[in-house]
Specification:
Layout lengths: L16 E3 L10 E4 L4 E2 L10 E8 L2 E3 L2 E7 L14 E6 H7 L5
Antiparallel strand pairs: 1-5, 2-4, 3-7, 4-6, 6-7
Amino acid sequence: MRRREDRPEFAVAVAAVTAVDLPEVPAGTVMQFAAADWYPSPRRHAEHDVTVVVAAVYRQELAGRIWVRGHVCSWHEPDCGTSACWEYQVHTSAVRAQLGGGR
């Protein structure tokens, strides 16, 4: 009998995590993402557009997406009392477009 890890039905595709070459995104930067740009769960696009006050943009890309943390509580003056009330995967191209680098 073959070992479980040698059988094709147990093969796992592993995506490479790569560093992203993006300009620095200062905390407080306001970004607007269309529903098709961000994911509330790994395999499902969002159902609405969102305006986010950025707290951090992570520079590790996986499958064309990076993590963005920020606030949606009050985009002009975050008031939720936490370091970030929004943290989701966003298409790298969407962040790049917000920074003026186009898609």
